[in-house]
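User: I'll paste a sequence; please echo it back and then give the predicted structure.

Assistant: Echoing your sequence first, then the prediction.
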Amino acid sequence: MKRALFAAFCILALCSLLLVNTKTIKAAESGYTRTDYNPDTVPLVIDGQWTSTDEWTQKGENTTIGADVTFKSVWAMISTNIVNDTFLVEFFSDNTTDAGDYWQMCIDGDYSGGTAPQTTDYRIDIVGHTTLTVYQGTGSDWTVVTPPASLEWANSLSDSPTNSTPHWILEMTFHKLDLGAGPTWNFRLAAYDENTTTLAAWPPTPRDEPNRWGVQNYTSGLIPEGFSLSVVVLLSSVAVAVSFYFLRKRPKTQSYSSAKTGEINYTR
């Protein structure tokens, strides 16, 4: 029994290591953790649309925000000490151009949390689909700063392989360290449609409270084709359960009685 438990534990530990880097997060909204994967070999073009039908197919898990918004992200090492993060965001129900529309990302790169924006926190606003502004925390509020040169973005009204009706699509990329983000970081992503007053946010928590944002973890490797992270975790759990079952049910070693009678007793 002890051997079976040990084997099951080893299998579970191995599956966990293969899936995702684990790290203690000091401040984040409970239940909101996602994973950055590496991109496949299909080039990413920052033009606010699926440049090819397979551009984003194998690039990270889909994270959905209700029925309106979905997003993906990948990380890639550009050179020594330079890591890029690239996002695709699709707002399926928004197909109008309004001055008050916005995309927004809040970044707590060192996941220090806090009830107000700290000096290590950044916020990216793209308003009216035309104007980008970057803010840095002051300890109590936000102040405007110069956007880093590595920050590129584009959005457009376009259809995509995920939705054939034209809708707003955003692509954005930046060097993580330019916005204070380490390998694991906390963030909040939001999209707002002024026409319908629809606000979709991940997580649906206050913009100015870093300790209420979600977690962006990472793993080395591509997301398994056709599987979301939750499916992979489920399959790993099933594998552990099956392995444990068969190990537990293995017959015990046969024991032999007196050599004089030649009888064989089976211990069951």
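Residues 1-20+226-251 form one domain. The mean pLDDT is 82.
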